[in-house]
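Work Package 4 report. The design task specified in the project plan requires that, given a folded chain encoded as structure tokens, an amino acid be chosen for each position. We show below one input record used in the internal validation round.
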């Protein structure tokens, strides 16, 4: 069978080449399409949208977060429970502290006020005590002064009695009154004994010597000269004792 000739596609470039080579008349050129006409006129053909590939669509879609693991969930729960327990304990501690602190503070303030009041009372009592002690000391000084004055008065009275009896003995001896001299000599002994009890302890030995001297006078009344000399010495001793014990 004879082979059929294959159809040859005609385009402007091939037609031009054919005309140039063979000198045959060119066949009629096909009408360009709208896109080719637009391209020939200088405008770019409108790009037809191409469907996105699988990789691009996967990259453009937002990545969803992976669910947390068991360890993270456990740590979150543990942290929440720990925080809750700490908050509860903190509130309990604050409440307990406030409940205990406020009464303790009030008690401390009351105790401090009572202590200040007691301290003021003690201070007032100390002031009154010092005042009373001052008054007591003044009274004691007055009493001591009065006691000393009384003792001096009693001692002076005893000295006066002894001196009076000594002078009475001398007068009786000069009057040669033996009975009177004997009676006054006995009274002189009693006066010196009373004087010994009222004389301060530092001068009692001197009074004891006077008593011995009075006893000697009483036993020697029959010797008026000797008795008179002893009486004058006794009177001098009594005057000396008065100047010592009654001096201001």
């Amino acid at each position: 069978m004879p082979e059929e000739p294959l159809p040859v596609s005609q385009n402007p470039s091939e037609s031009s080449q054919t005309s140039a080579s063979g000198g045959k008349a060119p066949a009629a050129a096909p009408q360009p399409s709208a896109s080719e006409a637009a391209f020939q006129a200088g405008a770019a053909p409108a790009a037809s949208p191409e469907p996105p590939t699988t990789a691009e669509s996967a990259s453009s879609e937002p990545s969803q977060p992976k669910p947390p693991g068991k360890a993270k969930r456990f740590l979150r729960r543990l942290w929440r429970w720990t925080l809750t327990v700490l908050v509860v304990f903190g509130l309990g501690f604050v409440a307990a502290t406030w409940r205990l602190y406020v009464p303790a503070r009030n008690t401390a303030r009351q105790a401090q006020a009572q202590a200040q009041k007691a301290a003021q009372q003690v201070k007032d009592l100390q002031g009154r005590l010092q005042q009373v002690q001052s008054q007591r000391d003044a009274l004691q000084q007055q009493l001591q002064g009065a006691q000393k004055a009384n003792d001096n008065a009693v001692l002076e009275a005893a000295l006066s009695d002894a001196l009076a009896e000594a002078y009475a003995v001398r007068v009786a001896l000069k009057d040669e009154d033996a009975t009177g001299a004997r009676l006054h000599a006995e009274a002189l002994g009693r006066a010196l004994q009373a004087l010994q009890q009222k004389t301060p302890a530092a001068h009692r030995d001197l009074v004891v010597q006077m008593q011995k001297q009075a006893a000697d006078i009483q036993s020697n009344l029959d010797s008026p000269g000797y008795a008179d000399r002893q009486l004058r010495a006794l009177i001098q001793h009594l005057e000396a004792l008065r100047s010592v014990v009654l001096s201001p």
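The first helix runs from residue 12 to 22. Validation will be extended to a larger panel in the next phase.
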